[in-house]
Structure prediction request, 130 residues.
Amino acid sequence: MKKRVSKQAQRVAEKVDMAARVDAAFAEARLAAADAYEAYAATVIRDANGREIGPWGRTYVDVFVPSYRFRTALIEAEVIHSSNQGHWRMSDRLWQVNGFPRARGRGLICEAVVAVLKRHFPQESIGTAS
Prediction:
């Protein structure tokens, strides 16, 4: 005889599963960010003092209209916040790398993170914004 699981127990199990999936995806995203930065740092032009030459700029990882479970897991992990433009912005502290890359470097890091997150959560709309 098959045991019935209550809806409450099922919701709790789904929440725990999503939290574990988010944790695994972010662990992989941090590695991808570090790899992207290393590849970028090897090609960057520097001045005589070793400082990077290039324009400053910011690139972010955004989630557009996330599913309830995904958004809830990200909020509880304290990795996203609502943006005034109607989407959710992820905290870049999760994949901060050594140094302070300029615009091109930040863009490459965020693109690497987005690629990992899209692979883990293909149903979600995740992208970069400047």
